[in-house]
Amino acid sequence: MVKIARIMMFLMFFHFPGRLLGEETISQKNTVHFIADFPEDKQKAAEFFLELGEKAVQFFKDQGFDPPQDKVSLVYCATQKDFLQKSGLNPEHIVACASPERRAIFINGEQFQILKKEDIQPVMIHEYAHIYLGLKVAASLPLWLNEGLAMHLAGEWSFGDSVNLSLAHVMNRFIPFSQLSENFPYGKSEMRIAYLQSYSMTDFIMKNFFGKGGLNPFLKRLERPNESFEIISRLQDPIILKSLEVQWRNHLGARWRNILYIILSGSLTWFFITLLFLYAYYKKRKQKKEQEALWEEEYQ
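Above: the chain sequence. Below: its structure as tokens.
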């Protein structure tokens, strides 16, 4: 009888570990394209995110893209720690991240509470874009191209982004693309620059090397295994990537041209930031010339 009792206790623990450990049970709700893995007390949140997910799919259909048939799990994470543990991706996003391999989008509940409702839909569209790319594109994309394509798919670009890109160019804050192939920087400002660069470089490559048909034809080529692996292998070649980076920087124009663009953008904030930058730049240059002159006197 003692043995039977022990076996029964083992089976109960094996089949109902959450209840015995005092954890909340998880329920699943389904829609056509998504499965929501949310705690029982977050059912309204589950319905909300399922609706946003289906809207993201419809957004892609409206743009002429055919979403994958695979169902995607929306995994709710109550805290930042829970988010990092469940995703296991050390993600650059702290709000949400996507894993095409696991067919999942991980949601940071702690961070989403801070966002306005109207700001959540763009995040879902962006993360679903990563699912789309992961399941549709044959080759593994370098991170900067993955993010650049996701931003294009989600329609993420604004006039303010153009101004910020010009400002980063003027201040010489660009990050070498060789450093953006696998990871993005963790600082908020540097991360934003990495995203702007990724979008701009992706746009430059599509328009100048793959015709002017836009995003859809380029993605179609990336979906074909032979073409996809050839294109990505070239973009990962250090010499080719460096050459592309030089061409892209030249395409953005000289610094003075970008300074003029910032001033003419009509933003007084950017105007004064530019003036402060120019003041600091010329002060540093003057100090350098004075130091060089002093060294020349000492060694004559």
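The chain has two domains: 18-136, 140-271.
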